[in-house]
Amino acid sequence: MQLFYKGQVYTGRRDVIDPAEQGLMGLSTLRLGSGEVYESQSGEYEIGLVILSGSADVAVDGQAFAALGKRANVFAGPAATVYIPRDSSYRVEGKSADFEAALCLVKADKKLAPFVVKPEEVVINHRGGQSWKRDVHDIIVDNGEGKVDKIVLGETYGDPGNWSSFPSHKHDQSIPGVETELTEIYYFRVKPENGFGVQILYTEDRELDEAFVIRDQDSVLIPKGYHPVVAPPSVQVYYLWFLAGSKGRKMQPHDDPQYKGLHALVK
C-alpha cells in the first residue's frame, strides 16, 4: 500500500490520493485564478473543502456561499471550510489570483445539508509542552456531530524545531471507550518552502516502521500505527488532517506507552 505522496506542480484539480483505491477516503487539491470556475459532483463522498489560500465563491446544490477565504497562505490564520454532502453538485469560482483549496473526500452513507465553518468558528487548542508544542485547529470535530456522516477535520501548526502528533498515538483499533478505529490523511505545508520535516510511522510489532522526509505539499496516508511528525530548528511544519472510520467519529487516540508519561510534564 502506498503511504507517501510527493507534492507536484499543478493547475486546476490534482487528485493526490485516489479514494477509489483506498476504499474510504482520498485527497485532491484545487487551484484557480480569479474568475476561473471548477464544477463537479461529490458522488458517494462527503467533502470538506478547506481553503488554503485566496478567496472564492462556492455553491452547493444551488446554495451560494460568497466571498469565502481571506488568508494569504495556511500560516496566515484559521481556514474557511465548506462541507459538501454526498450526491451534491458544487461549483467553485476563484475570486483571487492565488486561490487554492484541499478537497478532503470521505465515503459517506448519509446525505446531510451543506454548511460553512468560518475562520472565527475554528476551535484553537494549544497542546504539548517543552519540545512538542503545537496549535491544533478543530474545523469539523465535535461541532460535526449530526451535521456530517463520518469526516473529522482540522489543521495542526507545529512550533519550529518541535515534535507534533506527540506523544506518539494511534487509532487503528475499535475498543469502546478506549480507542476508535480511524484512518487518517496528512497534507503538509512547510515554512520556509525549501525546509523539511520528518513523518514517522510505526506499529508496536514494527511490521510498519517507516520514516519519510516531508517537503512542502507532500501527503501521507495513515491506515494504522503511531505517526509522530518532527521539524528541524527554524522550520515550521503545518498539516491538514482528516479522519474517518466505520465505528463512529469520536476522537479516542491511544498513546504509545513508552511516551505516555510526557503528559505529566505539561503544565
Automatic annotation (TrEMBL):
State the UniProt keywords alphabetically: Isomerase
Q: Which InterPro entries match?
A: Deoxy-glucuronate_isom_IolB, KduI/IolB_isomerase, RmlC-like_jellyroll, RmlC_Cupin_sf
Catalytic class of the enzyme: isomerase
Which Gene3D superfamilies does the entry mention?
Jelly Rolls
**A molecular function GO annotation:** 4-deoxy-L-threo-5-hexosulose-uronate ketol-isomerase activity
Superkingdom of the source species: Bacteria
Output the SUPFAM superfamilies linked to this UniProt entry: RmlC-like cupins
Q: Which residues form a coiled coil?
A: none
EC number(s) stated in the UniProt entry for this protein: 5.3.1.17, 5.3.1.30
Biological process (GO) annotations?
Answer: inositol catabolic process
Signal peptide location: none
The question of whether Isomerase is a record keyword is answered with yes
Q: Does the keyword Oxidoreductase apply?
A: no
**Which is one Pfam family of this protein?**
KduI
> Which NCBIfam families does this one have?
myo_inos_iolB
Q: What is this protein called?
A: 5-dehydro-4-deoxy-D-glucuronate isomerase
Native organism: Acididesulfobacillus acetoxydans
